[in-house]
Design goal:
201 residues, mainly alpha, two-stranded antiparallel ribbon, 4 strands, 10% strand
Length: 201
Amino acid sequence: MTPFKRFFDFMSAIFLGTVLLPVMICVAIVIAIRDGRPIFYVAERMKTPTQPFGLIKFRTMRPTTADTGVSGGHKTDRLTRTGRMLRRTRLDELPQIINVLKGDISLVGPRPPLRLYVERFPEIYAQVLTSRPGITGLATLYFHEHEDYLLSRCQGAEETDRVYAARCVPRKARVDLIYQRNRSFCYDWEIMLKTVFRSLR
């Protein structure tokens, strides 16, 4: 990450955090009232092939000690009443502004992967994670809905893992590397604006 990109991320996160603080407070109150505690969910993700961090989200599922892997159709019954709406609007990702302030992620970049896929596909993520992961990115814009569709049809953890590894990891990586070859300040702005408009839509 260049010093300019880090400076832009930090200042933007301060601005967005200030503007969106009332929204985040309202979401937190709704979760507490409707679904109880905990309000936040912290998941291990990787910002480099060797460096993990805790990605912060609003909780959208009922807690369990046996939660592993990506979310597929087999986890649908764990979604809370509020969680469905938060995921649909991507409001569950607002607390990641804290991760941007800490420098764990950028505003724009590849989505931070799970450790198990980084370890399973070291050649892929050695390239993808030369860019700092982000809240949104090119693959998020152009593959996220299709990924949700593919995984929602999976009926078990093994099937979800198989589909994600075979049909999502390589495709997302190709798109992330397109971003990597073309990244610029203007390109980041374009991706962020398209993300906002898609969420509003």
